[in-house]
Amino acid sequence: MTDDAPSRPATRGRPEPVQVVKQRRDGALSALVRGVPYITYLGITFERRGDEITAILPFDEKLIGNPALPAIHGGVTAAFLEVTAIIELSWTYLWDDIEAGRIDLEAEDASRRLRLPKTIDFTVDYLRSGLPRDAYARARVNRSGRRYASVHVEAWQDNRSRLFAQATGHFMMPQGLRERE
């Protein structure tokens, strides 16, 4: 995607400066990530371009499940895909409120107040071994309603068209306010 463009006017007839918009979006993504401590343990980071998010799982020896191959552990792969799906779904779910400034995800305690979707089921297709190198993933929300959402996520390493895993998950959406009271 191209660079972020201002999307909400700060004052009548004047768009917000691009840097302000970028900082608000980056702060919101950071708050979402802080809400899931396992993301930090695995070392997963997220890059944002506009409204598109790419998850990155940097290679680390602790991720190896089969040292004979070596290959990334299947549980790590599944966790990477599930975390990517949850962050993408949350980002999509909260986008309008973030853009309108109705939710301040940059506040110190925002990640503790935030309600994330809960996994109902998650099915992983292991297409090939995850090699000992960085992995990338992107999720696509197929359907998102008030109570239920369906998300598809794909992971690759060196070549975007050569996936090593993909998954489909169904999630229960948070009810009531988007932030805990």
Automatic annotation (TrEMBL):
List residues traversing the bilayer.
none
SUPFAM superfamilies reported in the protein's UniProt record:
Thioesterase/thiol ester dehydrase-isomerase (SSF54637)
Q: What class of enzyme is it?
A: isomerase
Q: Which GO terms describe its molecular function?
A: isochorismate synthase activity
Lineage: superkingdom:
Bacteria
Which Pfam families does this one have? Answer: 4HBT_3
Q: Where is this region: Disordered?
A: 1-20
Domain (Acyl-CoA thioesterase-like N-terminal HotDog) ranges: 72-171
**Statement: the UniProt record of this protein carries the keyword Transmembrane helix:** no
Q: Which InterPro entries match?
A: HotDog_dom_sf, TesB_ACOT8-like_N
Q: What is its EC number?
A: 5.4.4.2
Keywords, A to Z, come to:
Isomerase
Protein name per the record: Menaquinone-specific isochorismate synthase
